[in-house]
Amino acid sequence: MKALNLIMIAAGSALMMQACHNGTNTSTTIDTTTTTTADATKTDTGKMIAAADSADVNFATKAAQGGMTEIALSKLELQSSNNKIKDFANMMVTDHTDAGNKLTAIAKAKNIMLPTLPDTTQQAVITDLSKKSGTALNKAYVAQMVADHQKTIAMFEAAQSAVKDTTLKTFITNTLPTLHKHMDAINAIKSSM
């Protein structure tokens, strides 16, 4: 719990420092979760990079936040006495960390600034589950994983036709089988409870 709080404080501090930076680039728009360029931005080499499509940015933002949420929730279960849940939580941390790293590399190459924290609704879920323990935590975690994976799979499937960038499309295509594997695994755990 303390580690999660420290991570959230550090990330919040980084966001505040970024917000306080008063650069001279007026072509940048900022909202509460992402930073994207309005039209294009110059790199250090002077080349122009086109701004990412809004559907691409929206997908990347939601996918990043979802992955961070899955990791944070799963870390709560790494000490579970239920071996099936513990194994599932370990798989979630590993797989979502890997997917997050791939998405971060794509976003960097496409000039998309990803959020550093889950959204406020997701943070509330993390906080709520962090207050639970034992069987209550196990049941809440499993229910949340089922609901989250249903939403995530639907989002990824919709994004296959919505996103424009071919690299993001490949990421979606390559990640969907893992999400389906997670869904099957958590459904099996839910059935055995």
Helix content: 55-70%
Structurally, how many domains make up the residues?
1
- Overall shape: it is globular
At the fourth level of CATH, the homologous superfamily is Ferritin, core subunit, four-helix bundle
Name the CATH class. Answer: Mainly Alpha
Q: Report, as a whole number of angstroms, the end-to-end distance.
A: 26 Å
Order of helices and strands: HEEEEHHHHH
- Count every beta strand, where a strand is a DSSP E run of 2 or more residues: 4
Give start-end ranges of low-pLDDT stretches. 1-50
Q: How confident is the prediction overall: mean pLDDT?
A: 81
Rg, rounded, reads: 18 Å
**What is the count of DSSP helices, taking H or I runs of 4+ residues?**
6
What do we call the CATH topology? Ferritin
Short description:
The protein has 6 helices and 4 strands, in the order αββββααααα. With 193 residues, the chain is mainly α. The strands form 2 sheets. Strands 1-2 form a two-stranded antiparallel sheet.
List the helices and strands and how they pair.
Elements: H1 2-20, E1 28-30, E2 35-37, E3 40-42, E4 48-50, H2 54-75, H3 83-109, H4 120-130, H5 134-162, H6 166-192
Antiparallel strand pairs: 1-2, 3-4
Describe this structure in words.
The chain has one domain: Ferritin, CATH 1.20.1260.10. With 193 residues, it is mainly alpha-helical. The protein has helices at residues 2-20, 54-75, 83-109, 120-130, 134-162, 166-192, and strands at 28-30, 35-37, 40-42, 48-50. The chain contains 6 helices and 4 strands, in the order H-E-E-E-E-H-H-H-H-H. It is globular and about 45 Å long. A hairpin with a 5-residue loop joins strand 3 (40-42) and strand 4. Helix 2 (54-75) runs antiparallel to helix 3, helix 3 (83-109) runs antiparallel to helix 6 (166-192) and helix 5 (134-162) packs antiparallel against helix 6 (166-192).
